[in-house]
Amino acid sequence: MAAQFDASAVPYPSRRTILKTVGVGAAGLAGIPFLAACTGGSGPSATGSDSPGLTFGSGSSDDVPKRAYQAVTDAFTAKTGKKVTTNVVPHNDFQNKINSYLQGSPDDTFTWFAGYRMQYYAEKGLLAPIDDVWESIGGNYSEALKKASTGPDGKLYFVPNYNYPWGFFYRKSLWAERGYEVPETFDALKALATRMKADGIIPIGFADKDGWPAMGTFDYINMRLNGYQFHVDLCAHKESWDQQKVSAVFDTWAELLPFQDPAALGQTWQDAAKALEAKKTGMYLLGSFVTQQFTDPAVLADIGFFAFPEIAMEGRDAVEAPIDGLLLSKKGGENTAARDFMSFLGTAEAQDAYAAVDASNIATAKGTDTSKFSPLNKTCADTIADAKYISQFFDRDALPAMANNVMIPALQSFIKDGRMDVKNLETQAKTLYAAQ
Amino acid sequence: MSSTARELVPPEAREPEGAPVRRTKGGRVRRLSGRDKLVLSLMVGIPTLIELTLVWLPTLMSVGLSFTRWNGLDLGGIRPAGLDNYQYVTQDYPPFWPAVQHNLLWLLFLALVATPLGLLLAVLLDQNIRGSKIYQSIFFAPVMLSLALIGIIWQLFYQRDNGLLNFLLGTAGTPQAVDWFGDSSVNIWAAMIAATWRHAGYVMLLYLAGLKGVDPSLKEAAAIDGANGFQTFFRVVFPAMRPINIVIVVITIIESLRAFDVVYVINRGTNGLEMLSALVIQNLVGEGQVIGVGSALAVVLLVISLVPIVFYLSRTFGKEGKA
C-alpha cells in the first residue's frame, strides 16, 4: 500500500538526522574506544548458522498495515520460536532516508517495493540475493511476480507480499441508472465520457495536487500504445523520451484531458474519492487503495472496477499493480533467521495472516485464502492473475529523481495546457540518469 | 601573601618575589595569564570549531559537490562534472526560472505590503491603547505557530468547496468557486498573504521594541516646533530607528529568499508555487536526491543570500570601525 505515498512529502532533515550528525561528531571526539564499544554490541549478523532472531524494519506505519505485519511476525515466532524485533518508521521517513538507512546499520529484512527502486539498490550491492529462499518459495509465485523480484544481475532479491491493481473505479448504481456500459476500447471510453459530460457529470475523476497520481494515466496510455517493454525501457532510460512514441502518448492523453476533472491540481486523491462517492464524477482511475476511503459498507459494495481499455497494442495484457514485499539487507544476508522469515512470508500461511488484518490488498502467493474476497476484491485479483505483464507504477519503475523532480512538474503543467516538451524531458533524463 | 594562597595563582602569573609592586601591577594589566589565555582560547575556539564543522565545512562541501555528479552512496562514485549542473539548472530545469521570479515577487510583496503593515501595527499598538498587550499577542501568535498548524489554518480558509473565503464570496460549492491553492494563477498570492500574516507580526514586534527605544524628548521637540503626527513620525521617529530599519530590511530580504514553509505545506512548492528553497529540498532530501543539481541550486541561493548579508555586515562593522 505504498504507491500513494511514494512521491509525497520531502521532509526537512529531521531532528533525528541532526542529532545523529551531532552524535557522530561527539563520537569522533570521544575517540576510537567509544566507537569500538558502539559497534561491538549490535548486529545479530555475525552469529551465522543458528541465530536466535532477526530485526525487521517496517515502513508500514499506518495502523492497519502495522497490525497486519505484527500478525505475520507473531505467526513466524509461534512457528519457529525465533524472535522478530520490528522497527516501525513512518513511511515517508522510511522512504526518504533509504539511502542512509541501507548504508548505515539497516535491519536484517525490511519492507520495500519491486521494480527499478529495488534493482537500483541491488546493483549498488546494498542487498543480499536470496536465490536459496526462492528455491523453497518459487512454486508459490507466478512467472510475472518472479520477474518482478529479479535484480539486474539475474539474481532474486525480493519476496512479494501483496499488490493492488490500478484501474477505473465506478459506482455501479449510477451506471445502472444511466445505462452506462464498461468501455472495452479507448474510443468507447471517449464516447462514454462524452455522454457523461452531456449528463452533467464530470466523466473521469482526477486529482494531482500531490503530483504522483497523474503518472497512472501516463503509464496506462503508454503501455496501451507502446507496450509493456517500452514502458520498462523508457523508465530505465534505455529509450529516449524525445521520440514520436512518447509524443503520441501525450497526444492521446490530450484527447482524454477535457473529460478529466478540471480541478485536479487543487485536490488530493482522497478528495477525488469523495467526489466519486458523491456521484459527482463518473469513474476514477486509481489504485485499489481508493476503497479505503469508502467507509460506508453500502457504498463499498456499490463500487465496480474495470481495467484500462485497450488502445493499440497488447490488448489489456499489462496491468499496473505495484508490489510491496520484503528485501534482505546486505548485513541481514548473514542471518539465517532472516532468510527463514523471508521464506515464511512467501507462503500462503503468512500472507493469509497478513490479509486477515489488512484486506484492502491482494495477496501474491498461490493458495491464499480467497473465500473472504468481496466481488470487488475478486475482480481485482482476477485482473492481476490474468495479466501477462505487471508494471510497478512510474515512480517505482523509474529513477526516483526522474519521477519526483521531472515528471511531477512536467505532468502538472501538461494538465494545465495539454502541451509537453518531450525534448526537455529527454535533456533532464540524460542529466539525472548520468548522475547515478 | 601566604604560600598556600600563592599556590593558587598559576606560575606564570605569580609576582616575582620581592619585586617592586608598581612594576608588576603594570605588567599584569597588559599581559594575559596562562589561565586567561586557556579560557579565552576555549571560549573562542569551541564556537569557532562548531561554526567551522557545522556551517562552513558543509557550505564548502556543497560548493564542491555542485561541480560533481554523485549518487550519494559511495564516496568513490563522485565524478567531476564541471559546470554541467549549473547549465542544467539554468537551461534545462523548467521550475528554476519561475522559482527565481516567485522569490523576487515574494520579496516585493514582503517589502511593500507585509513590512509596512507590521510597522503600522507597531505604531498603532504603541499608542497606549487599551488591551495593547492582547493585540500584540494576537498579531505575534502566527510567528510562533508550527508549520502543520499553519497549513491547517489556511486550508480552512482557502479550501475550494467548504473554505471560509469562498463561503464569504458566496461561491462555495459552485463551479465558480476559486481554487485558491490549486489554480496556479492565484495560489502564489494566496501563499503570500499567508506569509504576510506571519511576517507582519514579526516586524511589528521588532518595531515595537524600536519605538520604545526612541527618546520621547525628540517627539516633544518636534511637537513644539509645530510638526504634525505624520511629520513627527516620518521625519523624526522613523529616522531615529535607523538601526532597527537596517535589521528589518535584512530580515525582509532573507525571509523572502528562504520562503519555504508556507509553500511547502500547500503543495511542496509545485504547480505555481516554485521557490528556490523548495527546489533545493526537492533535489537534496529524500529518494529523489540528485546531489550535484541540489548543491548547485543551494549555491545559487547562497550567492544571492550573500548580497544582503554582506550589505548588513558592512553597515554594522563599517560603523564600528569609524567610531
Summed up, what is this model?
The complex is a heterodimer of chains A (436) and B (323). With 436 residues, chain A is of the alpha/beta class.
What does this structure look like?
The complex is a heterodimer of chains A (436) and B (323). With 436 residues, chain A is α/β, with parallel strands linked by helices. Chain A has helices at 3-6, 15-30, 32-41, 63-80, 91-96, 98-103, 116-123, 131-137, 143-148, 172-178, 186-198, 214-226, 228-235, 244-256, 269-277, 297-301, 336-345, 348-357, 375-386, 394-397, 400-417, 422-434; strands spanning 53-58, 83-88, 109-113, 158-163, 166-171, 202-205, 281-287, 303-306, 318-320, 323-328, 362-363, 389-391. In chain A, the strands form three sheets. In chain A, strands 2-1-3-10-4-11 form a six-stranded mixed beta sheet. A four-stranded mixed beta sheet of chain A has the order 6-7-5-8. Chain A has a two-stranded parallel ribbon with strand order 9-12. In chain A, helix 8 packs parallel to helix 17 and helix 12 packs across helix 14. The longest helix of chain A is centred in the first third of the chain and has 18 residues, at 63-80. The model of chain A is unreliable at 1-49 (pLDDT under 50). With 323 residues, chain B is mainly α. Helices cover 71% and strands 1% of the residues of chain B. Chain B has 15 helices and two strands. Chain B has a two-stranded antiparallel ribbon with strand order 1-2. In chain B, helix 3 crosses helix 15 (291-322) and helix 14 (276-284) crosses helix 15. Chain B is flat, with a radius of gyration of 28 Å. Chain B starts with a helix and ends with a helix. The chains are: A alpha/beta (436), B mainly alpha (323). The A-B interface holds A 7, 9-13, 25, 95-96, 98-99, 103, 117, 124, 126, 209-211, 263-267, 400-401, 403-405, 408-410, 412-413, 416, 421, 424, 427-428, 431-432, 434-436 and B 53, 69-74, 84, 88, 92-95, 160, 179, 181-184, 267-268, 270-271, 274, 281-283, 285-293.
